[in-house]
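Write out this protein's structure.
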Amino acid sequence: MFASRFSDLWKKHSRLCWHPSPAGSYWVRAPQKAAPPYLVLNRIDEQPNYHMQDASGFVSSRVQIDCYAATYTAATAAARAVKAIVSGYKGGQIQGVFIESERNLPAADAGEVSTLFRTSIDITVLHGEDP
């Protein structure tokens, strides 16, 4: 449920920042033939939120968004566009989105070869618990 809520947010607003067309966005892994620029989103963890009485009904989820592109400049531009969309967003079940960190990493994991560049952003999303 969280993935669909967050994907809806991304699809709704991503067209505002991408020219000439929005990047593809994928959960967990992009298809082998995905054309850059594209995003890969991973929900890293979730932590229930509590108040003094009991559980609040909200969850804090950390999401890593990896922005892949053919050049370093395009990867960092993609990250800026993502931050512009999600930073401070609230609506529906999403109570708030907060940027935690940003870093530039090699696009390939150990042992892999890639010509792409990657900028990663960690965000925290405070949202209603999944039913």
